[in-house]
Amino acid sequence: MPLTQEAQAEIDAARASARPTLRAVSEGMEAQLYTAHPVLDHGFVRVIDYMGDDSAIVQAARVSYGAGTKHVSNDEGLIRYLMRHWHSTPFEMCEVKFHVKLPVFVARQWIRHRTANVNEYSARYSILDREFYIPEPGQLAAQSTVNNQGRGAVLEGAEAARVLEMLKGDAMRAYDHYEAMLSQDGQQGLARELARMNLPANVYTQWYWKTDLHNLFHFLRLRADAHAQYEIRVYAELMCKLVADWVPLAYAAFADYRMGGVSVSAKGVEVIRRRLAGEAVTQETSGMSKGEWREFVEVFG
């Protein structure tokens, strides 16, 4: 279980304490506040706070008073226009703060998105829990033969069992030594800030991560993509569902233009025009590299 009984009791108490407010409220996000949604084997994502809703995007774009127009279709059209033409500042008017529990190696990949405010659990001050990410058998895969940063065929049989046993054994042994080194039980021991360096990258950490909607969409476009690493993708996919509840009009536009759309180069546009004119275009006559052509064909055939 990703949550202790004490943590769940705190969440239940927070959700039971409703207060009136004059600020913009998203009913969908109110239903999600504080709830811990499990991810992987010990992780979770929960929304701690948020600011703004779909009408806040429209209001900022029009620099108007109060909510958007009385016609939802007008607001939706404007939001889709803003998304379609890559406007950013109206989406920056909405913010959200997440509490995330995740493996350290996922956190180090995640922190590459430098457009958020982050405060992480301190292993200098506190002792980390004995919790490690151990992949499900279906995620134990060999190195891809065509992608230097991807996975290939899933391991099976004795090979899968061998790798899984090493992952579990090394994690437990490292934590045993971590505990043995700490300054506790009457021994002088090692300072926490030093003992932590012995822990593996699959140990779990936690942080508060606050960002605006524009930069959150950028994070989700990259990390919820099918090519993203599975362990960070499952976090992003869950966050997509939370954002869809929070700002449904903005998320629908994002899903259409960013997640479902593609960016085509000038060469790609020219190839499409030539194809529409009846010409049989090949990689050699397209002006594209082999990599560009492969990606083009994946989308347009």
From TrEMBL:
Pathway: Pyrimidine metabolism; dTTP biosynthesis. It catalyses: dUMP + (6R)-5,10-methylene-5,6,7,8-tetrahydrofolate + NADPH + H(+) = dTMP + (6S)-5,6,7,8-tetrahydrofolate + NADP(+). DUMP binds at Q109, W110, I111, R112, E120, Y121, S122, A123, R124, R196, R223. The keyword Flavoprotein applies. It is an enzyme of class 2 (transferase). It comes from the Bacteria. Its EC number is 2.1.1.148. One of its GO terms (molecular function) is thymidylate synthase activity. The keyword NADP applies. Its cofactor is FAD. InterPro entries: Thymidylate_synthase_ThyX, Thymidylate_synthase_ThyX_sf. Keywords: FAD, Flavoprotein, Methyltransferase, NADP, Nucleotide biosynthesis, Transferase. Binds 4 FAD per tetramer. Each FAD binding site is formed by three monomers. The active site is at R223. FAD binds at T89, R112, H113, R114, E120, D212, L213, H214, H218. GO terms for biological process: dTMP biosynthetic process; dTTP biosynthetic process; methylation. Belongs to the thymidylate synthase ThyX family. Catalyzes the reductive methylation of 2'-deoxyuridine-5'-monophosphate (dUMP) to 2'-deoxythymidine-5'-monophosphate (dTMP) while utilizing 5,10-methylenetetrahydrofolate (mTHF) as the methyl donor, and NADPH and FADH(2) as the reductant. NCBIfam families: thyX. Homotetramer. This is Flavin-dependent thymidylate synthase. The lineage of its organism: Bacteria, Pseudomonadati, Pseudomonadota, Alphaproteobacteria, Rhodobacterales. The gene is thyX.
